[in-house]
Amino acid sequence: MSAYFSEARKNFHAAVLVGVIRFNNQSVPNFADASSRASSNIARRIVEKLQGEVSIGRIAGQTSGKVFEDLVLEFIQDCFGRLGHLRPGTWGIRKVSSRDRLSIAQFEQYTHLVILDEAARSNPALAAALGSDYTITPDIVMFRVPEPDDRINAISELVDEESANYAIIRQKNNGASILHASISCKWTIRSDRSQNCRTEALNLIRNRKGKLPHIIVVTAEPLPSRIASIALGTGDIDCVYHFDLYELMAAVREADLDDAGEMLRIMVEGKRLRDISDLPLDLAV
């Protein structure tokens, strides 16, 4: 019997095969770019390695993305829930509605964005100057609930009324949850629209007050050069996580795509690309 995370990874892949992946009439998986021979080749080999039945047909792009988000959410909830001994606390992990452009403002580091939005609504000049720089809508958020004093003092009396009166982990000081991670899910990386995760990352960095949350992208994109368009850079994103990195690496080797293989090596060894199974443990940091 494999370790729990290994089994969870297999179950995640099985769910992706059933719920998201489809072949077209030319046997090209729907997470490949059918116009790219390399992308199609890699994606076919990945599907072969996942060893499951795949249906033929089409799924709308938005539907694929939403199902992928749901499966990523379930995987994180399941695996992170096993790490209470490494990262104790009261945690929440959930999807964010794409229509809720100020959803981030419910978290302690970004509550001031509500005031900013109200000011922009009443002042057209301010709204024009700000644009949408304060609008942040991740696909998945992970947050920690502040702790009551009796829990902080469970082993010994650590806090009282005389000190620690601004610490955000203390419930009496802060009624809002603390954003721990912002996770964007990209089924594929095909267009400039896929780059909006970088814009949101910069907005998270610029607009926060206090602790910066983890900023993460999860993708199924098979072409290393397109993954690199998000993974490589100045570090506005913590790391990109691939839904099946080990299978991707093997597929690129078997396809004799030297440039793609070198790009993968650079991203992995440069700590810019990891496997989905690494994500729960990285979130425990």
Describe the structure concisely for a colleague:
The strands form two sheets. Strands 3-4-5-6-7-8 form a six-stranded mixed beta sheet, sandwiched between helices. 42% of the residues lie in helices and 13% in strands. The longest helix is centred in the first third of the chain and has 20 residues, at 61-80.
Describe this protein's structure.
Strands 3-4-5-6-7-8 form a 6-stranded mixed β-sheet, sandwiched between helices. It has helices at residues 4-19, 37-50, 61-80, 112-122, 124-130, 149-152, 196-207, 224-231, 245-254, 258-269, 279-283, and strands at residues 22-23, 55-56, 91-95, 140-144, 178-186, 214-219, 239-242, 273-275. Helix 2 (37-50) crosses helix 9, helix 4 crosses helix 5 (124-130) and helix 8 (224-231) runs parallel beside helix 10. Helix 8 links the parallel strand 6 (214-219) and strand 7 (239-242). The mean pLDDT is 91. It contains 11 helices and 8 strands. The chain has 285 residues and is of the alpha/beta class.
Rounded mean pLDDT score = 91
Order of helices and strands: HEHEHEHHEHEHEHEHHEH
Which parts are unreliable, with pLDDT below 50 for 5 consecutive residues or more? none
Secondary structure: number of strands:
8
Helix content: 40-55%
Oligomer description: single chain
Describe the largest sheet.
Answer: 6 strands, mixed
